[in-house]
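Q: what does this look like with magnesium ion bound?
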Amino acid sequence: MVRAEQVHKAYGDTPVLNGVTLTVERGETVCVMGPSGSGKSTFLRCIHNLETIDGGRIYVDGDLVGYRETGQRLRQLSGKDTCRQRAHIGMVFQHFNLFPHMTVLENITVAPIRVKGMNASDAEETARKLLKSVGLAAKADSYPRSLSGGQQQRVAIARALAMDPKVMLFDEPTSALDPELVGEVLAVIRDLAHTGMTMIVVTHETGFAREAGDSLVFMDQGRVLEHGPAREVIANPLHERTREFLSTIL
Ligand code: ADP
Ligand code: MG
């Protein structure tokens, strides 16, 4: 579902991704760990086409991200095509980024209505189903500021799902939460993993990675240093850097 081949990305003179290669199968949940600054967020942003890449290729469900390929030539997608492509990819950030002036229901229906042209009543029906699935059916008319961080993050997940994405990207979805709220968000992501959604989850929650992750990637200095079954990587890291890192979070 996602294939990254030798992805390179630099900010000015600073290389951030140094040849990231990763394949995520349909229905697979890949957890990504690695030290701060190792390029995890940048990699997700490249998949979502929020950043252009300097080298390599990323495919989502067979579609080249950001470009159209005709023979040997690559042409950058137009703004409209970029939007269309982005609509297939759901992203959940550390800081929920809900629209503060909209109700929970409006937060979830706005993109399906405006981007996909869904009619309002269908969008609302979908949104209510999704709210129920994240345990927030009663909060449809609330505003984000009246919700806890855990509830806001669950709304953010429902909002991303409302676009019926092919893949969901999570960038440290629980690291801004108070510890007692982490579990409720991880439970929602775990349920989603069991529905067969394809997911890339940047997280340092090793318990979650073991239970819900099909595989675990360890990134270091803009590279995939290790990629294997989550339990194996956690129990028996191959690289000294992975071992060191895990010892700081376990
Ligand atoms: P991680 O998510 O693993 O902590 P990031 O992908 O956020 O790492 O960042 C990787 C590196 O890229 C860091 O050194 C960071 O300072 C740098 N970086 C990230 N975004 C930008 C940006 N917009 N401009 C310049 N440098 C950036
Ligand atoms: Mg990050």
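The radius of gyration is 18 Å. Residues 189 and 207 are 13 Å apart (CA to CA).
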